[in-house]
Design goal:
This protein has 275 residues and is of the alpha/beta class. It has one domain: TIM Barrel, CATH 3.20.20. It contains twelve helices and eight strands. α2 (38-48) packs parallel to α4. The longest helix is centred in the last third of the chain and has 16 residues, at 253-268. The chain is globular, with a radius of gyration of 17 Å.
Length: 275
């Protein structure tokens, strides 16, 4: 990343540095933009920082979400049924950023980016105050164009390492990942209903740590303070999505925001080591 950059990826890196200096892991919640409506999303976003979020993943709803389990797929459908667009998601990110939210990453798939236009999307992320984007369906070999568009603007592109990723390939992904390395905790799609495989996570993190690249965050299946604690003891942070979305599903407005904030506050207790 260019040394002159002071926003985007640099703000995300600073979130990891601050957490490490405080002796704890980073907590990154995911929510879907427009679920169940834009006004509710804005209220939920505003409550995440005070509840302990160090950074936020804001999903752009998409009708064919390959990495998403039933909870997030249902959230995306609710958002799409409400008419949420890419521009709407970016507007929510911009509003939250202007109101002082933690660093925000957009979570999306390659088709919406292609339809929107890659260069236009990168510029829109900067205009929204976002730190970058996670695009889980683009393999390492095909990230070149995205990174070429993101890097000059200081935008991060975290990449995913799956449980089935061979060691040499995992190392290559980790070296290319920007912002953090997203270590997937177990096989399958996102879901709060299956336990993370912490023994496999420990082995993966131990293999990636000596590479000295970006921080490592663990996601998929993280649904309790205990999970967060184990993830933060092994890696640099934890990502929680489905369990948080479930915590306020079926509600709107202030009630949704209060439920999300209460649930995340409970998870935040796990970011500090029990030792």
């Amino acid at each position: 990343m260019p040394e002159t950059l002071t926003t985007g990826g640099a703000r995300l890196a600073e979130a990891f540095r601050r957490a490490k200096a405080a002796g704890r892991g980073v907590l990154i919640p995911y929510i879907c933009a427009g679920d169940p409506d834009a006004a509710t999303t804005a209220l939920v976003l505003d409550g995440l920082g005070p509840a302990g979020a160090d950074a936020i993943e804001l999903g752009i709803p998409y009708g064919d979400p390959l990495a998403d389990g039933p909870t997030i797929a249902a959230a995306a459908k609710r958002a799409l049924d409400a008419g949420t667009t890419v521009d709407d998601a970016l507007a929510l990110a911009r509003g939250a950023h202007e109101r002082g939210a933690p660093p925000i990453l957009l979570f999306t798939y390659i088709n919406p980016i292609v339809q929107y236009g890659l260069e236009r999307f990168a510029a829109a992320l900067v205009a929204a105050g976002a730190c970058g984007a996670i695009v889980p369906d683009v393999p390492l070999e095909e990230t070149g164009e995205i990174r070429a568009a993101f890097a000059p603007l200081g935008l991060a592109l975290p990449l995913l390492v799956a449980p089935t990723t061979p060691p040499a390939r995992a190392a290559a992904i980790a070296r290319s990942s920007e912002g953090f390395v997203y270590v997937v905790s177990r096989l399958g799609v996102t879901s709060a209903g299956r336990e993370p495989d912490f023994s496999a996570i420990a082995a993966r993190v131990a293999a990636l740590r000596p590479l000295g690249g970006a921080p490592i965050a663990v996601g998929f299946g993280i649904s309790s303070a205990g999970h967060v604690r184990q993830a933060c003891e092994l890696a640099d942070g934890a990502i929680v999505g489905s369990a948080l979305v479930d915590a306020y599903a079926g509600t709107r407005g202030v009630e949704a925001a209060e439920r999300a904030q209460a649930f995340l506050r409970g998870l935040a207790a796990g970011t500090r080591s029990s030792s």
